[in-house]
Amino acid sequence: MIRKININIFAFFSNMKLLDSVIVVILSLIIFLLVGVSIVFSNMIFNFIQRETEKNAIQSAKNISSLPQIKNISSKEDDSSMREVEKLVTSISINTNASFIFIFDKNKTLLVESKFDGNVPNYVDPNMDLSLVKGQSYIYRFSSHSERFITGNAPIYNESNQISGLVVAGFPVNSTILITRGYLERNIFYLFLFIVVGLGASIVIARGVKNAIFGLEPQEIASLFQARTAIIESIRAGVLATDAHGKISLSNSKAEEMLRLTKDELAGAPIERFFPAELTVQALRMGVSVHDAERTVQGMVMYCNMVPLDYEHINQGIVVTFRQKDEIDLLTRELSQTTRYSEILRAQTHEYANRLHAIAGMIQTKDYDDVLDFIASETIDHKVMVRTMTETVEDPTLRSLLIGKYMHAKELRIDFSVDPESSMRNIPPSVSRHYLLTILGNLIDNAFEACRLSARKSKVVLSMSDFGDLIFEVEDSGPGVPESMVEKIFERGVSTKKSADNGVGLFLVRQALFDMNGSVSVEKSELGGARFVVIIPTLRESQS
To answer: What is the pTM of this model?
Structure first.
């Protein structure tokens, strides 16, 4: 039954909106505290008033017992003397707010009683011997006619200092309850007032909490948290987040894998431990985003991005994403190769379409002999190029690239040729074909672009040698490379051409050669343009 009630209460709160839940919880807490304080306060007041009543009862009984008229009283007094004492006791009872005052002799016989209220209780006290025999003053409680009383009992000493009787002063407990009830009624008023104030405060607090979490409900926050975790884990780049002090507070599995640390080891670690201080200070302290910064992290070259977490113009930390440069370069090379292949296919399609149009025109004019001569002249150059490539280049991937570039050059009206003394029949397996295609493809494309910028006859010559190290030379008849740019031409974004899309090809060439321990240089060509010389070391020397 208790379990069922707990489940029902939990379901009740879980179905409520956050604003209502906060109001209910805060208001319930305020009511609980106020009611508890009121009960404790009322109980303290009741106990205090009761103790004061007991003290008053004892003191009243002692004061009465010390009066001369009371000290000498005895059962032998005449009626007139007794009436005088009775008037005195009644007067004292009125002045002290006592309900009754009794005077007993040593034999427990009632001698005098106050008669101002007309409702004298039936008083039976089994403890009278405490005063009549032992001479002690004491408190006694009893009930009569549905009323409760507190009595103060004090012995009477005669002139011989002997116990001659007992004074009983009684006070009602109901008056104490009435006084306490008055305080309680005022407490209830203040309780209501505080509840109203607490309701207003709880609404303000609830709205503040609601605004702080962007108006989301707990279920929505939980759903977003799960979605955030899934999104971060699905990112194939390393992701780290820090607090305002630069301590790592979040990491995904890819970051843990790349940094070779566990989540617990990363948590709380300073971000400067893994990334250069100039980047973290720029993002964390200055609030400036960092994009595509190339830095060495844990012995690996990474591309880093850092974005500040800014909330109400206060920096709450940064988010860092990083990925290995090799992965980015591989994707770039593959995209570049795909682009080149598509351009080659488009060039071949365009070139063959023009030839087919020419053949179709000659057939329509019935110039059949010219058709045969045209086909023979067109195919002979292609056959010569294919035969040359077959004899010179053994690798089919490289051979296909060069044949495609030849077809592209014909479309661009560029004289592209391979030095007849070239030889590239022995490429070691250690040389990456992907890197090789990236290097030659970008150098030849650069040469084509340079020829189109020159007024001279467009010509590109490729020379290859596989004796010892692999050597490639690509020279063109373009405008060449200015001396001021020779040192910078291989940097990202640097180009002799004005287009914003340039400045990437030679950068990829240098990066590919860097990974292969190769080198590239540029010099003046005999054709009037530039000559790029590439040297790729092989493993033959180490094997010999």
So the answer is: 0.42
